[in-house]
Specification:
The complex is a heterodimer.
Chain A (H helix, E strand, L loop, with lengths): L15 H15 L10 H12 L9 H15 L5 H11 L1 H21 L5 E9 L2 E9 L2 H72 L5 H36 L27 H8 L1 H22 L6 E8 L7 E8 L8 H66 L5 H37 L12 H8 L2
Antiparallel strand pairs in A: 1-2, 3-4
Helix pairs in contact in A: 2-6, 3-4, 4-6, 5-6, 6-7, 6-9, 6-11, 8-10, 9-10, 10-11, 11-12
Chain B lengths: L2 E2 L12 H5 L3 H5 L5 E2 L21 E2 L8 E3 L2 E16 L2 E8 L8 E4 L3 E8 L8 E3 L23 E7 L4 E6 L4 H6 L4 E6 L12 E10 L18 E4 L10 E4 L3 E8 L5 E5 L4 E6 L2 E2 L7 E2 L1 E4 L4 E7 L4 E7 L24 H8 L13 H4 L15 E2 L2 E2 L6 E7 L70
Parallel strand pairs in B: 3-13, 5-8, 7-12, 13-16, 15-26
Antiparallel strand pairs in B: 1-2, 4-5, 5-6, 8-10, 9-11, 11-12, 13-14, 16-22, 17-21, 17-23, 18-19, 18-20, 18-22, 23-26, 24-25
The chains are: A mainly alpha, B mainly beta.
Bound molecules: copper (II) ion (CU).
Keywords (chain A): Lipoprotein
Protein name (chain A): Putative copper resistance-related lipoprotein
GO molecular function (chain A): efflux transmembrane transporter activity
Chain lengths: ~475, ~475
């Protein structure tokens, strides 16, 4: 609402003490909005602590920056565990810091909204012969004053929303970091095993070369063994490429650069837990604690109260109140209120109410959708987690030991000259590939665990379900 | 040595319970009690105490079936059943056989004997017995469908005929015979001459065995019945060297060895140190005019040969099939030849991946006999036999004829290794080796019988690699 300058010709003699009283009363009316000591960060910190068991730090000063750098340096100095990686990302990811700044921006706006606009004051002096005319005017957005509690509440809710969003960023970053961590770690392990596969292929290629040299193999037999080698070299190159790109993804999430990127990952993925989590009431848990569900619920409540507001104060935003005081040196001071009132003559507010109702319904549907999606996502995440567990366990308890046993039996058969060294090496490649498949299954389990953790507290980014990997074994076997 | 077992007691019977249970007790009461053999050892000859006298044979790693006389008829009882046969120490096979062993017991009768054979089927399928080489009524020849219905599981059939012709015979099923013979169902039959025979000499020792072959995957126990030629276990009486007993004889003994072939290929059986005469075939004793001295007798599929010789040379004499694959035990037939391949570096690389890996075969396969390496369970090691001078490097169809001066008459026990008189063993030459004058080979290839149409584009340079000594470098 534009300030409505009220100017009247008035004789002199101003009374400033009265003006002060008006201002004070206005300030009291509006409530005194001010900056919180934590800038809204305490809620985010609490979320990180409660949901992740991790610290977040808002780098608002050089000192903050230094303490973050120190802590990150310590964490990066030893092989990075997944928890360390998450901690580093939460401290060091600049995107997250940028999100924290959102808190500052929003709080400033909230505080701004809670303050009265500066009253306008105008003073004029003119003389016409003997007559001096002093014109003084004080104008003030009264509507704002009246609406201030409402606006304050709305802004406070908006601040809450931003806090929620920033908290979500924290959780998403943690989940993304976990997934990137396991992917990068598994890729490193894969490279190690692919090197072994290539070593086996190397040995058979070299042996085949020597076999041909002394006349025990023909060109075809030698070429066959060398094609295994060529294939293994290709697989290794692919594995190394995957290792580099997955590591870079992790580097970005950790927000590290320069020498910090030389951090070490452990040798192996963490072991499969002895038993999977049993979460029979996974949907209830998710509905109770998911931030997006809570947010949708709050949005609905807020819209509802906004709707009520609109209904009861159809005219509130058209009400304008001005304080007016005119004084003249000739005449007694003229005082009074000047109220402009828009009459609901043509717009009874019905359209506005209908819109609000539609908005409210929309929010309700959104909230319902969020809840339905949350239930489904957490179910998907949980079944994904369970099957990833079963698959990883099957690899660990069945596939790998079976291949191990096959390898042992093949060595015995080699001892008895029942098979040759090339069959033995081909089998070694198969066995190594089975170990690698087991690593990948373990990686998928830990990623599924990260997805489940996320699905329980916020919207997860679940990977599109893939069909059963039929080709994997054939590709891994290498012969 | 011989253990008797109540058939209906069922104790220790490997056969399917269904077969045993369905043999009627009443019917069994009239039968001679079946005699079951539990050991694969060579049993002493069974000297007849009833019926006509004869000189008994010794079945290599086998035995002779006892009989009972019933109103002048020799009655035998054969039980066809699944058995576990120890083919060599530490390696047992799941076979089908007769009376506890495969091959079944040897049946010995005398020319002119009336023989009644009760055959009880304790297998899961029909069987029958064909009396290979016998003159007999057509309905007793045992070909299922042609001469008789098959003997159903649990039933006992009776064969009866007169052993007319003296000689060497076999018995085996003629019902599902591909399977039943691949599973080891067979046995020997000797008809001894009644009194003196102009073509059949009296001998001091008379050995017999069947040639048979199995394809049992290393670590498994049951033969693969579909195999036709690529067998991996070549056996005598379902035993493989070093699981085969030696043929122990006394110096100057007249020795007879009867061999029957029930494999799917021929076997040139070769005796060291002596010449022998083929004195009998499937058709009986050979005319003297046809006999010639041999050291190898090729025995074709389904044939029998009777070799006679005078054991006049003391010592431990090798006796084996001359197809060298038949003197090996289970081995891979697709294993690449590693002779002359330098393993330096590669071996180390492989050991990183397969810690138990050992280089083998780059000098030949004899290494196998010197390495003690773990094999799959229930597998007979290849060429595992060891003699007084080390590894014999043999397996399968290989045994030793032991001729000893001080061996007692009728004593078949192993006298141990031969003690060579001084100066009668090959020895190392320790003198100086002058460079021998060698014929300089013409580099150009010989003319051949016809000019060749196409020649290799390039002469391939083929080098002989000589062992540089030892497993150096790995
Ligand atoms: Cu042979």
């Amino acid at each position: 609402m534009p300030p409505h300058p009220a100017s009247r010709r008035a004789p002199a003699a101003a009374r400033p003490q009265r003006l002060l009283a008006v201002l004070i009363s206005a300030a009291v009316l509006g409530g005194c909005a001010s900056f919180s000591p934590d800038g809204g960060f305490a809620a985010v910190e609490k979320t990180a602590k409660d949901r992740l068991g991790k610290d977040v730090q808002w780098a608002r000063s050089d000192a903050d920056q230094d303490s973050i750098a120190k802590r990150v340096g310590e964490l990066l100095s030893k092989p990075l565990t997944v928890d360390d990686a998450v901690q580093v990302a939460l401290l060091n990811n600049r995107g997250l810091q940028a999100d924290f700044q959102d808190l500052g921006v929003t709080e400033a706006e909230v505080v701004q909204a809670g303050r009265l606009p500066n009253p306008g004051f105008s003073f004029g002096r003119s003389s016409r012969g003997d007559e001096r005319e002093i014109e003084r005017g004080l104008h003030f957005n009264l509507a704002r004053l009246v609406a201030m509690p409402l606006i304050g509440r709305m802004e406070a809710r908006r601040f809450e929303q931003v806090k929620g969003r920033v908290a979500m960023s924290v959780l998403s970053l943690a989940a993304d970091t976990r997934k990137a961590y396991f992917t990068a770690l598994a890729a490193e392990e894969t490279v190690r095993y692919m090197r072994q596969v290539k070593q086996a292929a190397d040995a058979s290629a070299e042996l085949a070369r020597r076999m041909e040299q002394v006349g025990n193999f023909n060109k075809l037999q030698r070429a066959r063994e060398q094609s295994f080698y060529a294939n293994a070299a290709l697989q290794l190159a692919r594995a190394e490429q995957a290792q580099r790109s997955t590591r870079e993804r992790l580097v970005r999430l950790l927000g590290v650069w320069g020498t910090q990127t030389a951090f070490a990952l452990p040798e192996r993925l963490p072991d499969l837990p002895p038993s999977p989590l049993e979460l029979p009431d996974v949907e209830q848990v998710a509905l109770a604690q998911r931030l997006d569900v809570q947010g949708a619920k709050q949005a609905a409540e807020q819209t509802a109260s906004n709707l009520g507001l609109t209904r009861t104060t159809r005219f509130v935003n058209v009400l304008e109140l001005g304080v007016m005081r005119n004084s003249s040196n000739e005449e007694p001071t003229q005082r009074g209120w000047e109220i402009g009132l828009e009459l609901p003559l043509f717009d009874w507010g019905g359209a506005r109410a209908a819109r609000a109702e539609a908005v409210y319904m929309q929010t309700l549907h959104r909230a319902a959708e969020t809840a339905i999606n949350a239930r489904s996502e957490v179910r998907e995440a949980y079944t994904g987690y369970r099957s990833a567990y079963d698959i990883a366990r099957h690899h660990r308890d069945e596939v790998v030991p079976l291949n191990q046993r096959i390898a042992e039996e093949n060595v015995l058969r080699y001892n008895g000259m029942l098979i040759g060294v090339f069959e033995l090496l081909a089998d070694a490649r198969t066995q190594i590939a089975s170990v690698n498949a087991s690593i990948e299954a373990l990686r998928d389990f830990w990623i599924a665990q990260a997805d489940l953790d996320m699905a329980l507290i916020g919207k997860p980014s679940l990977a599109a379900a893939a069909g059963p990997a039929m080709a994997a074994e054939a590709a891994g076997a290498g012969h | 040595m011989l253990s008797r077992r109540k058939m209906l007691g069922g104790a220790g019977a490997i056969s399917a319970a269904v077969a045993a249970a369905s043999v009627s007790k009443v019917a069994m009461a009239a039968l001679p009690e079946p005699v079951i053999q539990t050991k694969p050892d060579t049993m002493p000859p069974l000297v007849p105490n009833t019926g006509r006298p004869y000189n008994p044979v010794v079945t290599l790693n086998g035995w002779t079936l006892p009989w009972r006389m019933n109103n002048g008829v020799k009655e035998f009882h054969l039980v066809a059943e699944p058995v576990v046969r120890e083919m060599s120490p530490g390696f047992k096979a799941h076979l089908w056989g007769y009376n506890g062993q495969s091959p079944g017991p040897t049946i010995e009768v005398v020319e002119g004997d009336r023989v009644r054979l009760f055959v009880t089927n304790k297998l899961g399928e029909l069987t029958s017995i064909h009396w290979h080489g016998q003159r007999l009524p057509n309905g007793m020849d045992g070909v299922t469908g042609l001469n008789q219905p098959g003997i159903p599981p649990g039933k006992t059939y009776v064969y009866e005929f007169v052993a007319r012709r003296p000689g060497t015979f076999m018995y085996h099923p003629h019902a599902d015979e591909m399977v039943q013979m691949a599973m080891g169902m067979m046995g020997f039959w000797i008809t001894h001459p009644k009194g003196k025979h102009p073509l059949i000499d009296e001998v001091d020792r008379d050995f017999c065995f069947l040639l048979n072959a199995y394809d049992i995957d290393p670590g498994a126990a049951t033969p693969k019945i579909m195999t036709m030629l690529d067998f991996n276990l070549w056996s005598w009486n379902s035993r493989i060297f070093p699981g085969i007993d030696p043929l122990v004889v006394r110096h100057m003994d007249k020795v007879r060895i009867r061999v029957g072939n029930l494999t799917m290929t021929n076997h040139p059986i070769h005796l060291h140190g002596h010449e022998f005469l083929i004195t009998g075939t499937d058709g009986g004793p050979t005319p003297k005019s046809t006999r010639q001295y041999e050291v190898t007798a090729d025995i074709a599929v389904g044939q029998m040969r009777q070799m006679d010789f005078l054991a006049d040379e003391e010592g431990d004499w090798a006796f084996h099939c001359h197809k060298s694959h038949h003197t090996m035990n289970a081995m891979g037939h697709d294993v690449p030849t590693m002779i002359g391949v330098d393993h330096r570096g590669v071996a180390k690389q492989i050991t990183k991946l397969i810690p138990d890996y050992m280089v083998m075969g780059e000098r030949g396969m004899k290494d196998m006999t010197e390495m003690e390496m773990p094999l799959p369970d229930n597998t007979a090691a290849m060429m595992a036999g060891t003699g007084p001078f080390g590894a014999v490097g043999m397996g399968g169809m290989f045994s030793v004829v032991k001729v000893r001066k001080d061996q007692k008459r009728g004593d078949y026990s192993d006298p141990g290794w031969y003690q060579h008189p001084p100066g009668t063993v090959a020895y190392e030459f320790t003198g100086a080796l002058p460079d021998p004058a060698r014929f300089k080979a013409d580099v150009s290839p010989g003319p051949g019988s016809m000019p060749s149409m196409a020649k290799p584009a390039q002469d391939v340079e083929v080098k002989v690699r000589k062992p540089a000594g030892g497993h150096s470098g790995h």
